[in-house]
Specification:
Elements: E1 3-5, E2 12-14, E3 16-19, H1 30-42, E4 47-49, H2 58-70, E5 79-84, H3 99-113, E6 118-123, H4 132-144, E7 148-154, H5 158-171, E8 178-180, H6 195-201, E9 205-209, H7 242-245, H8 248-263, H9 268-277, E10 282-287, H10 292-299, H11 308-317
Parallel strand pairs: 3-4, 3-10, 4-5, 5-6, 6-7, 7-8, 8-9, 9-10
Antiparallel strand pairs: 1-2
Helix pairs in contact: 1-2, 1-10, 2-3, 4-5, 5-6
Length: about 325
C-alpha cells in the first residue's frame, strides 16, 4: 500500500480507503463487517470514511465497535473521517452547518465512534442558510478544542471552496484541507467545473467517493446481468445504481475496459482505481466492499501505474 499526503498538509492517507455508505451498519452483517475491516488493516489501509447520516448513526456505531472493542486497534493506527449536515431528526436545528448543529453533531459522532477525537471532520454538503464565517469559525473552534484535527468539505462547488478558504485567511482560521467529491472514469465533472483546479490552488487534497461507480466499473454487471448478493440485487441500497446498469452502451464500454485491464495483468476494479490515482492531488479513493476478497483486490490498485498510452486507451473507450 502506498500513502499520500492530504494536499499540502502533513496528514497521510492510504491511496485506497474504506467507506461505509450503504454497507457497514446497514446491508452488511457484523461478522462480515469485522472481517472486512480486519482485512483492510492487514492490507495496509489506514483511511476509513463514514458519516452520521449513514443509516442514522449505525455506520459510526459499527466502526467504533469493530475498531476499539473487537479488533482493539491503537487509535493512532487509523485515520477516521466522518461528516455532518443532513437532518438526523425532526428537530429543525438538527441539520445543516450552524454552529449549534456542528457542535452537537461532533459530540454524538465521537460517542458513536468511541474515540476522543476525529481526524478529519467534513461538511457533507454546503449550507446556503448559514454564513460562511459561522461555518469556518465552528470548525476552527473544534480544532482548537482538540475534538477534530482537520476539517474538510464534500460536494462543494469551486465557489464555495474558494469563499471558505478566503474567509479562513481573512480571520486567521484553520482552513479546510480536503474535498470529497464523486469521481470516476464515468463521472469526471470536477475536472471541468473548477473544483479540482480550486483544490489544487488552495493545497487541498481530494478523497473521492464512488471511484468504481457503485461497482459498475468492476465489470460484474456485464450484459445487464445482476449477480446475487450484489448491490444492484439489494432493493434497500440499489436505487443509486439502477441508471447505470440499465445503460447498455455504458455496459458495453465497461466490457471493453475489462478486456483492457486484462492486457495489463489487472482487474477492472484495479484499473479504475489506478485511473483515479493518476492525478497527484487525488489523495485517496474511497471504496466500498461487502467481502474481504474485494478489499484485497482493490488494495493492489495502489501498485498499478497508468502510462500515458494506457490513459489514452481508456479515454478512447469512454469517449
Amino acid at each position: 500500500m502506498n500513502y499520500r499526503q492530504l494536499g499540502k498538509y502533513g496528514l497521510k492517507l492510504s491511496e485506497i480507503g474504506i467507506g461505509s455508505w450503504l454497507t457497514y451498519g446497514m446491508s452488511i452483517n457484523d461478522k462480515t463487517a469485522l472481517n472486512c475491516i480486519k482485512t483492510a488493516i492487514d492490507c495496509g489501509i489506514i483511511f476509513f470514511d463514514t458519516a452520521d447520516i449513514y443509516n442514522k448513526g449505525q455506520a459510526e456505531l459499527s466502526l467504533g465497535r469493530i475498531f476499539f472493542r473487537e479488533l482493539k486497534i491503537h487509535r493512532e493506527d487509523a485515520v477516521i473521517a466522518t461528516k455532518c449536515y443532513w437532518p438526523m431528526s425532526q428537530n429543525p436545528n438538527d441539520q445543516g452547518l450552524s454552529r449549534k448543529h456542528v457542535f452537537e453533531s461532533v459530540h454524538k459522532s465521537l460517542k458513536r465512534l468511541k474515540t476522543d477525537y476525529i481526524d478529519l471532520y467534513q461538511c457533507h454538503r454546503h449550507d446556503p442558510n448559514t454564513p460562511m464565517e459561522e461555518i469556518c469559525r465552528a470548525f476552527n473552534d473544534l480544532i482548537i478544542q482538540g475534538k477534530i484535527l482537520y476539517w474538510g468539505v464534500s460536494e462543494w462547488s469551486a465557489e464555495n471552496i474558494s469563499e471558505a478558504s478566503h474567509v479562513c485567511e481573512k480571520y486567521n482560521l484553520h482552513r479546510p484541507v480536503s474535498n470529497q467529491p464523486q469521481y470516476s472514469i464515468i463521472r469526471r465533472q470536477i475536472e471541468t467545473n473548477g473544483v479540482m483546479e480550486t483544490c489544487e490552488k488552495f493545497g487541498m487534497g481530494e478523497v473521492v467517493w464512488s471511484p468504481l461507480a457503485q461497482g459498475v466499473l468492476t465489470g460484474k454487471y456485464s450484459g445487464g446481468k445482476i449477480p446475487k448478493k450484489s448491490r444492484a440485487a439489494n432493493n434497500k441500497v440499489n436505487h443509486f445504481i439502477k441508471q447505470n446498469i440499465n445503460n447498455i452502451e455504458l455496459l458495453k464500454q465497461v466490457d471493453k475496459f475489462t478486456e483492457l485491464s486484462r492486457s495489463v495483468d489487472a482487474t477492472a476494479s484495479q484499473l479504475a482505481l489506478a485511473w483515479c490515482l493518476r492525478k497527484q492531488n487525488i489523495t485517496s479513493t474511497i471504496t466500498s466492499a461487502s467481502l474481504p476478497k474485494q478489499i484485497i483486490e482493490n488494495s493492489k490498485a495502489s501498485e498499478l501505474k497508468i502510462s500515458s498510452e494506457l490513459e489514452k486507451q481508456i479515454k478512447e473507450i469512454f469517449a
